[in-house]
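Step 1: inspect the first sequence and its tokens.
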Amino acid sequence: MDKPGKDSWRFARAGARATAVVGPGRYAVIQQTPDKSDLDAVAALLRDVDIILAEGFKQADKPKIEVVRQVIGDTLVSLADERIALVSDVDWGATSTPVFGLDDYPAVADFLVATFLTPRRGRAPEPRTP
């Protein structure tokens, strides 16, 4: 998107506070900020989406799926009341938190749909066409 050598990249290096890349049916805006942007402020810019997945933002008061790789360690950093699932190769024993393997992305996707996009969570069912 903002690749070295492209005009938008050169404009940013020359001091532009914001650049935009526009193409058929899509666009991207890169805005410089003095510090890390608030997740809610960035989420408010997104349109026509059902769910937002964000990496990082460990301190945000949001539901979290924590990824823990055994080669890095087995310490959890998210708060228990914010953690909705673990994705890991560590054996966590008996836990009430759903645990998925590192490569089990289909099950993680199903979990997200069931947790956030089903009618029981307040979302109207999608219209079905015969």
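Step 2: inspect the second sequence and its tokens, then contrast the two.
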Amino acid sequence: MVVQDRRGGAVAAAVACGTGLLAGLLATGCSPEGAAADDQAAPKRAAAAVDLRRSAEALVRAGTAKVRTAMETVSGGTLVAIRGTGGYDFAAASGQLRVVLPDLKGKPGGGHQPITEILAPGALFMKNRGAGVPVDKWVRVDTAALSDGNLVTGGATDPLAAAELLRGAREVTFQGEERLGGVVVRHYRGTTDLAAAAGRASARTRPALVAAEKGFTTVVVPFDAYLDDAGRLRKVRERFRFANGAPAGAAVTSTTVLYGFGTEVAVRLPDRRDIFTGKIASASS
């Protein structure tokens, strides 16, 4: 469902180096000093990629955090945005979000009532789901059975999965320091490889990333990530493209913001008797 934000580097100058007419104009780019700068930059890029791959571990050490999420889809010039707020326990790989859907039908007073989502290892629980589900019942979804591993299906990316996805980080560039929520963070940009991330992910997240690896058009996911001095992920924006079930040209961007580390987060999974087992109506019914 997503148009990727790729930016290629100029490579033609390398071909012109030493060919005479353009050699003088391109001397700076072909000089030993330029090569030395590249040699110095490579270890920094590698170190940045390592920091990003370890950010999930830093979050587990932090324990808990407050969460803000945004899922934006652009198709045919139309922007649809889904917002979420809540908390997440990284040690338990569980969290709870209040997800607000957009008003697509122009109903007075807004659109669909907010959905409560509980994120848990291997499962997504949704309350106030609509589609014929009683308001006091939960719907349980096996995330490994979803074509995207629930990276975008639920309208919010599981924060731990968003961080684990960076375990496949590559082509990382440092964009500079910024302030985010009053905290100085390091901004990195690059791509991550879904297959590599799935291979390096923790046992809790691996099934979802393996499913996503099969469900997306490409395993390459562009991202912008922001780390604090403790190596914790403060913000990550990831852009996806689906293989099936999405309008041509649709772009989906998932943003996760983490703050308030150490905040108490209590997540209680629904009782079995409260889970809806009937038929869920389709969007067209």
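Step 3: confirm your contrast with the notes below.
The CA atoms of residues 86 and 97 lie 4 Å apart. The mean pLDDT is 80.
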